[in-house]
Specification:
By secondary structure, the chain is mainly β. The protein contains three helices and 14 strands. The protein has a single domain, classed as Ribonuclease Z/Hydroxyacylglutathione hydrolase-like (Metallo-beta-lactamase, Chain A), CATH 3.60.15.10.
């Protein structure tokens, strides 16, 4: 039972999640789909996508490799709309929750509306949450902040936003969300190791290609 999980942000909503000898990759994006991001190429033992849109579901970017290591994660999915109209605009979205027996983390994909009590209960108490903060295609920053106040994860990792260097022009800069937080930590790396004794924080990672 590992006491840490390593997250590597590959840009947009794409993360590599590693627990000892097992790795999985979340929401790979199509070449050229997200302005400013390099072509994504990586290896993993498992690929999971929150939905099939090209900026989240380009599985071909990832080479699946064999491993004798067992998957250390119990994986739970919680379905929610990708929009504020029950999915009629953009379809449905899968929130993935990963529990290795010590740590519990979640990737919220393109969550588009508030969650009900049953959905929040299934997500449970999180050590870390990878969550979109750019709005437009997802919940706006104020709605994301309200959800985080309900779930109270120890570590929040913003994703799915734009900067002057990358991202969709219609979504927001991260500052619109970060000004709602009082625990922002800026990292000069795209790698974050989650542990049980990690201080509560909003961890802003750096895109490194």
């Amino acid at each position: 039972m590992s006491k840490q999980i390593t997250l590597t942000w590959r840009g947009h909503s794409c993360f590599k999640v590693q627990d000892e000898n097992f790795s999985l990759l979340l929401d790979p994006y199509l070449d050229g789909k997200v302005p400013g991001l390099s072509k994504l190429r990586d290896t993993a033992h498992l690929v999971l996508c929150s939905h099939s849109h090209d900026d989240h579901g380009y599985r071909e970017a990832i080479e699946l490799v064999d491993t004798d290591a067992p998957n250390p994660f119990a994986i739970t999915t919680v379905e929610c709309p990708h929009d504020d109209a029950g999915g009629s605009k953009r379809g449905m979205n899968q929130i993935h929750i990963f529990d290795n027996g010590t740590l519990r983390i979640a990737h919220f994909g393109d969550i588009g509306c508030p969650l009900d009590e049953e959905q929040r209960s299934r997500i449970g108490q999180l050590d870390a949450a990878m969550i979109p903060v750019g709005g437009f295609y997802t919940m706006e920053p104020a709605g994301i902040q309200e959800l985080l106040e309900q779930l109270n994860p120890r570590v929040v990792i913003p994703m799915h936003y734009r900067t002057e260097e990358f991202g969709f022009p219609v979504i927001r800069l991260p500052e619109d969300f970060l000004r709602l937080r009082d625990d922002v930590v800026q990292y000069d790396t795209n790698i974050l190791t989650i542990t049980k004794n990690m201080p509560k924080q909003t961890a802003v990672l750096r895109y490194l290609g």
